TrEMBL record, chain A:
<protein>
    <recommendedName>
        <fullName>DUF1806 family protein</fullName>
    </recommendedName>
</protein>
<dbReference type="InterPro" id="IPR014934">
    <property type="entry name" value="DUF1806"/>
</dbReference>
<dbReference type="InterPro" id="IPR036492">
    <property type="entry name" value="YojF_sf"/>
</dbReference>
<dbReference type="Pfam" id="PF08830">
    <property type="entry name" value="DUF1806"/>
</dbReference>
Automatic annotation (TrEMBL), chain B:
<dbReference type="InterPro" id="IPR023841">
    <property type="entry name" value="BshB2"/>
</dbReference>
<dbReference type="InterPro" id="IPR024078">
    <property type="entry name" value="LmbE-like_dom_sf"/>
</dbReference>
<dbReference type="Pfam" id="PF02585">
    <property type="entry name" value="PIG-L"/>
</dbReference>
<dbReference type="InterPro" id="IPR003737">
    <property type="entry name" value="GlcNAc_PI_deacetylase-related"/>
</dbReference>
<protein>
    <submittedName>
        <fullName>Deacetylase</fullName>
    </submittedName>
</protein>
Length: 117, 221
């Protein structure tokens, strides 16, 4: 993956508007968080291949870390802390946020075809 | 001497971090070892350091690393096809029957798995419980011995001293080679321990300090 380029990513998420798309949305701090640090909490959530449609899409950020909001007819999809992006298999948009050790903390992925399951 | 050892863990790299020295010792004695690996670690958060994997490429990368690690350890590999982080939500009995079908075929004299409820990761606990259930479902006279590995910080306080303590420092390089076959995971996992110690020491030294002895409880049915 490479550091997020705002204009390029904005253009790509615009291309997914008003289509039926598959979304992978995830956040994690690892299954060992509280094992390694007693004061830490294990938290994580993911949804894979949620079939959705959004009519507004925007990426906002300060040049290092970005937020993406996707507006659906009845609600929102939101991710914060995205730092990197790539296109997978020519068409799937992958965005992720990594910590300084390169560990994934958050990811938002959008595709017109399902992600492998 | 053991006849055949079956190792049952959910993730590519559990075998290397947890039991590589023990596996290598068995192989030196000429005992066949088979690894039943539950998932491909699809949901891992370590993506290599520097990053070379992403959520979508990670499964294939880890599959290759798993195959390489099994080659380093010279053991057979069966991939069970479950999905990372979901084992505890599957039907435990069904997984037990799946595992039993392998055990019925391989007829091991020893099974190594995680100690349910004391293995930290929900996948470890769930697959360990299913593995023990698979052995329990066998006729008592056909049951292999089960070595269960606990990981939690408090396990020794609660469970007492593990019966099996394998000092593997003599073949530690083999363990290191197996761990580093998991290139996407090794640095992240060992680096975590460096954070904890907050000193800048060599990752291999960290591994040696923490992993020179592999401990297991003998499961009582």
């Amino acid at each position: 993956m490479k550091p997020i380029e705002l204009e390029k990513v904005q253009k790509i998420i615009d291309g997914f508007k008003n289509k039926e798309v598959y979304v992978h949305l995830e956040t994690t701090n690892g299954a060992y968080a509280s094992h390694i640090n007693k004061k830490a909490y294990n938290v994580g959530a993911y949804i894979r291949n949620a079939k959705v449609s959004f009519n507004q899409a925007k990426i906002v950020g300060d040049g290092k870390s970005y937020r993406v909001g996707l507006k659906m007819e009845m609600g929102w999809i939101y991710a914060e802390g995205l730092t990197d992006w790539t296109i997978h298999e020519d068409s799937k948009l992958l965005m992720a946020g990594h910590d300084r050790e390169g560990r994934l903390m958050v990811s938002l992925q959008i595709s017109e075809t399902p992600f492998s399951y | 001497m053991e006849k055949h050892v079956v190792v049952i863990y959910p993730h590519p790299d559990d075998e290397s971090f947890g039991a590589a020295g023990t596996i290598a010792k068995f192989r030196e004695e000429g005992v066949p070892v088979t690894y039943l690996c539950g998932t491909l670690g699809e949901m891992g958060r370590n993506m290599g350091s520097p990053i070379f994997a992403n959520r979508e490429t990670l499964p294939e990368i880890r599959k290759k690393e798993l195959i390489d690690a099994c080659e380093v350890l010279d053991m057979n590999l069966e991939m069970l096809g479950y999905r990372d982080k979901t084992i505890e939500f599957e039907d435990r009995n069904q997984i037990a029957l799946d595992l039993k079908s392998y055990l019925d075929k391989i007829k091991p004299s020893l099974v190594i798995t995680h100690y349910p409820d004391y293995a930290v990761h929900p996948d470890h606990n769930a697959l360990g419980a299913a593995a023990i259930e698979a052995v329990r479902l066998m006729n008592p006279e056909d049951r292999p011995t089960v070595w269960a590995q606990a990981i939690s910080n408090d396990y020794e306080e609660v469970l007492g001293k593990p019966e099996i303590e394998n000092d593997i420092t003599a073949i530690f390089d083999k363990k290191i080679d197996a761990i580093f076959a998991h290139a996407s995971q090794a640095q992240g996992v060992l680096g975590q321990r460096r954070d904890e110690a907050s000193v800048n020491i060599d990752l291999k030294e960290i591994a040696k300090q923490n992993m020179g002895i592999e401990r297991f409880y003998i499961w009582k049915f």
